[in-house]
Amino acid sequence: MKTDRFIVENMKCMGCVNIIKNELSQTDGISEVYIDQMKSEVTINYLSDKLSYTDIARKLGNIGYPVKA
């Protein structure tokens, strides 16, 4: 299992947390999503190598939560 952490922008409330968690949880290949709102941190556990850091960063950006560089 692979794990990546992302620091995201625009995560301001529990509504944001829920949007991110719901969107990522529905993505094939992701087994777990952990979110720390205070740190603006999203941690993803992958089931397979089909997804990359870049894939998830792009998805986060597409739903309005770009990853900080």
Strand order of the largest sheet: 1-3-2
Say what oligomer this is. single chain
Per DSSP E runs of 2 or more residues, the count of β-strands stands at 3
- Helix share bin: 25-40%
Any guess at the CATH architecture? 2-Layer Sandwich
Structural class: alpha+beta
Determine the N-to-C terminus distance.
Answer: 24 Å
Give a verbal description of the structure.
This protein is of the alpha+beta class and 69 residues long. It has a single domain (2-60), classed as 2-Layer Sandwich (Alpha-Beta Plaits), CATH 3.30.70. It has two helices and three strands; from the N terminus they run E-H-E-E-H. A three-stranded antiparallel sheet has the order 1-3-2, covered by helices on one side. Strand 2 and strand 3 (41-46) form a beta hairpin. The longest helix has 12 residues, at 14-25. The chain is globular, with a radius of gyration of 11 Å.
Question: Which helices and strands appear, and what pairs or packs with what?
Answer:
Layout: E1 2-7, H1 14-25, E2 30-36, E3 41-46, H2 53-62
Antiparallel strand pairs: 1-3, 2-3
Features:
globular; alpha+beta; Alpha-Beta Plaits; 69 residues
Short description:
This protein is of the alpha+beta class. The protein contains 2 helices and 3 strands. The protein has one domain: Alpha-Beta Plaits (2-Layer Sandwich).
